[in-house]
Write a structure and sequence with these properties.
With about 425 residues, the protein is α+β, with helices and mostly antiparallel strands. Helices cover about 30% and strands about 25% of the residues. It binds uridine-diphosphate-N-acetylglucosamine.
Length: about 425
């Protein structure tokens, strides 16, 4: 196990470059496996979730090379669709459920364990499975999930909630179905559009991605392609918040500012100046920050994945801020960790609402914080950057799931973050 040791109180300056979007690339890897030809994917982040997914597709027969940020997938040899054995490590990664869509589309079925991922709520997958049923698949959802069909057929799917995962999984499966599939109330996140663009480059016929109505006209075969993944919206937001919290001026490069509109709007309400051009964001922050009320919502609303990092700015704001988490049932527990270094926060009985009273400073000297999940980990790191003293953050393997070179990028900006091996005393 590893920890971060963070010496707080240093301002950040300079530039940071954003890498490809985790939640896009995980869908794209599964989509690439729908074909039996090679795909080459650029701007792929070196993060644990990508490594784990690569291990899984290698175990089922794909050949993979990952050098620099270029991922080459040769899916021709995939021959294993029963992945119920623990050795396949399916339950170590939430996005492994995208292979259900791949198995149905390419092989008419498969068997996988229930997905893993961050413990931030119940995280059901009924919408994925009901959608597969609408495409004519038989689904058995017990300890293992088994999907089977004698050839998927297009169908009309109305998602009860615009689930990111279900929208991607159903686009993957329906790309090789016979006939036309309509997904209504689809998720509209930028990574949905990216996965659809990738599938279209493979020869799929997907229209409307990025709106709530997606139409997929099934094709007989998909081919390999070359593609570059969009920049990560959540990595961008994390550096914007880190810069603001440390009252710093930084430039965030290789990003798509329009994807950050909801966060930029919150920055404006808090009185934090932000400027953008085509692919860069400049943050120029100085306290005081105004308190805000933020409710998470599907895109283009405020992303749940930035709710936790944003809380650190609320802690540093004047007055009382409020969070309403509308996507996941239990994504506020990290506030109890932040209380250890001086945050004043109250989580309400519904577990989805919290109020945060601003404080002048945080003191994390010689405090140990435990990372509960990926984005909460980013929040703890940002809080430690602004705290007095040296704070230890444990269980950073969660952070490694989703941030490429996190401490290197922060240190290049002027932070003092060291990675420690807990086994070495
Ligand atoms: C994805 C992202 C995650 C992000 C989330 C919301 C990946 C690998 N993960 O997660 O980082 O926080 O989108 O932007 O891309 N739900 C159901 N039934 C379903 C599916 C979802 O009830 O079949 C519920 C979930 O329990 C949750 C909500 O819908 O409360 C949102 O889930 P969803 O949008 O599917 O998120 P994920 O795909 O799990």
């Amino acid at each position: 196990m590893e920890s971060y040791l963070i010496e707080g109180g240093h301002k950040l300056s300079g530039e940071v470059s954003i890498t490809g979007a985790k939640n896009a690339v995980l869908g794209i890897i599964a989509a690439a496996c729908l074909s039996d030809e090679v795909s080459t994917i650029e701007n792929v982040p070196h993060i644990q979730d990508v490594y784990k997914f690569i291990e899984i597709i290698k175990r089922i027969g794909a050949k993979v090379q990952f050098n620099n940020n270029v991922l080459r997938i040769d899916p021709k040899g995939i021959n294993q669709t029963d992945c119920s054995d623990q050795a396949y490590n399916f339950n170590k990664l939430r996005a492994s459920y995208y292979l259900l869509g791949t198995f149905l589309g390419r092989f008419n079925g498969g068997k996988v364990p229930r997905p893993g991922g961050c413990a931030i709520g119940d995280r059901k997958i009924n919408l994925h499975l009901d959608g597969f049923r609408q495409l004519g698949a038989k689904v058995d959802d017990n300890v293992m999930i088994t999907v089977k069909s004698s050839g998927l057929k297009g169908g009309d799917i109305l998602l009860e909630f615009p689930s990111v995962g279900a929208t991607i999984n159903l686009m993957i499966a329906a790309s090789l179905a016979k006939g036309v599939t309509h997904i209504s109330n689809a998720a509209k996140e930028p990574h949905i559009v990216d996965v659809a663009n990738f599938l279209n480059r493979m020869g799929a016929k997907i229209r409307g991605a990025g709106t709530e109505d997606i139409t997929i006209t099934g094709v007989d075969k998909l081919h390999g392609t070359e593609y570059s993944v969009i920049p990560d919206q959540i990595e961008t937001g994390t550096y914007m918040i880190a810069a603001a919290a440390t009252e710093s001026d930084i430039v965030i490069k290789n990003t798509i500012p329009i994807h950050m509109k909801s966060l930029i709007d919150v920055f404006k309400q808090m009185g934090i100046p932000v400027e953008t051009n085509e692919d860069e964001i400049y943050v120029m922050a100085k306290r005081p920050f105004k308190a805000v009320q933020v409710s998470t919502a599907p895109y283009p609303g405020f992303p749940t994945d930035l709710q936790q990092p944003l809380a650190v700015l609320m802690i540093l704001a004047d007055g009382q801020s409020r969070i309403k988490e509308n996507i996941f049932e239990s994504r506020l527990g990290y506030l109890n960790e932040l209380k250890k270094i001086g945050a004043k926060a109250k989580i309400y009985d519904d577990k989805k609402t919290a109020t945060i009273d601003g404080v002048n400073e945080l003191n994390g000297d010689e405090v140990e914080l435990i990372t509960p999940d990926l984005r909460a980990g980013a929040a703890l790191v940002i809080a430690a950057l602004v705290s007095d003293g040296t704070t230890r953050i444990k269980d950073i393997h969660y952070i490694d799931r989703g941030y490429e070179d996190f401490e290197e990028k922060l240190n290049k900006l002027g932070a003092k973050v060291a990675r420690l091996d807990d086994e070495v005393v």
